[in-house]
Each structure stands twice: as structure tokens, then as C-alpha cells.
Amino acid sequence: MDLSKILNAFDEMLLTVNYDKTYFMPFSCYSSGFPLFKELEIEKIEKTVKIATKETVKYLGVLIDQNLRWDYHIELLVKSLRSLIYLFRFLAKFVDFRRLKMIYHGLVECRIRYGITIYGTTASCYLNKV
After folding, report:
1. Maximal C-alpha separation, the chain
2. How far, rounded to the nearest angstrom, does the alpha carbon of residue 84 sit from its chain's CA centroid?
3. Are strands 23-24 and 48-53 parallel, antiparallel or unpaired?
4. Tens digit of each residue's pLDDT (9 = 90 or more) over 81-110
5. Per DSSP, which regions of 1-130 are E strands?
6. What are the residue boundaries of the structural domains of the chain, listed by start?
């Protein structure tokens, strides 16, 4: 089905598409497989709509890139985990080990486990950072 037909059907059902938050991202294993255009132009009933391309998109907390390499997501994960190191050093002075472990499970382990079935197959050089 043509994308313009889908968008026109949305208009008929009084559904709104936010074009400022809508992106187009082609997937490929190689950078040579990407299209050369930077945006999609879709002819609608009243006007022409442009949808921009993006190299990475954050979807449900997982950063997806067009090569599905997961290095961007792992870098974001490592950055968020590093910010918690100071917190644990500070809390270790005042909180017993059992409570510290509970905080670890609530703040750190849940972030690592979320989406690991997807990005867990990436190269070990990226996973070693975690």
C-alpha cells in the first residue's frame, strides 16, 4: 500500500500524524545500501508533506541505528551507568550492603537487562564497556 494512501486514510478517520516527530530510517548492513535522498516527499490531498531521514531513533528506550549495530545504544547505556558510580560511592558510606544491592538492582541491573536480547548479540568490543 502506498504511504500517501495510508496518510489520506488517517485524515479521513480524523487521526493526526505529527510530521515533526515522524522520521524515515532505511536499514542496511552496509552504508552503500542507503538511499541518496535525505527526505521523503508524500503527496497528500491538500499538500505535500516532507518526512526527514534519521540515522538513529530512540524507540521505547532503545537507541536504534540504521545499521543495527547497537554501538550508539551501548554508549548511551554506559554514559547513564557511569553517572551512577558516584552515587554508589557516596551511598556506600551510609547504607549497608543489602540495601545497596537493592538500589543496584533498581537502578543499574534493570537498565542493563532492558533490551539485552536485542543488543546482546553485538560485537564484544562494545559489550565489554558495560
Report:
1. 65
2. 21
3. parallel
4. 898 988 899 999 999 999 999 999 999 898
5. 23-24, 39-43, 48-53, 56-59, 62-65
6. 3-54, 64-127
